[in-house]
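Reopening this one. Same input as before:
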Amino acid sequence: MAILSATEKKRASKILNILRSNLPIRASDFASIIVNEETRDPFRVLVVTILSQNCTDIAAIKAYRTLEKRIGITAGNLAQAEVREISESIRVAGLHKQKSKALRQMGRIVSQEYAGDISKILQEPLNEARDHLQNLPKVGPKTADVLLSVWGKATISVDTHVERVSKRLGLTPSKAKYAKIRSDLMQLFDVEDYGKIPLLFMAHGRRYCKAIRPLCLTCPVQRLCPYSAKALP
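Same output, byte for byte:
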């Protein structure tokens, strides 16, 4: 793993401070449902994160609420439910057929191997916990990192916004994959800021650093961005 220079870390720190000043994290963000969930049940966080894959936050939350109302979001309930019933409950989230099969299978695995409680996994060292979580259906690196981050583990989740913003800001190579992006961000930023990075980068990606026609002229980190230097006349 390459060691990043002090200059790179200083620039990353400036970027973070500017984003933090210009993009306050709103309570209405998708994160609210997983951070402020009434029961603080990691299984529920895992479910809503899976539902959020390849769909909007609003659709994922709606599917989550419907699933809770019709079936109840516990490993046991999902394990015993019919795939069709789960699918109908989460239809709004997209890819409902694949997700419904995965959720029932995950419910069965968690019921049988963890007695319905995956909190034991979260007590393991980071890398072991990530590996065990990724053995569950529909749980990849991003989903595992979201859950681990919510439970205070030192990791950073990388979604499409985080990837795009990180690459345009020159915080990671343009062809970097998930593991490399995550590793670079974890080297550049302080551990206490890991949980804020995905939220701030996501907000920045939606407001300024859009996939198509980014708003470089009004971007608050324009002077620190190599992409802006090339994009602007």
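So the earlier flakiness isn't reproducible anymore. For the record, The domain at 6-28+156-231 is CATH 1.10.1670.10 (Endonuclease Iii, domain 2).
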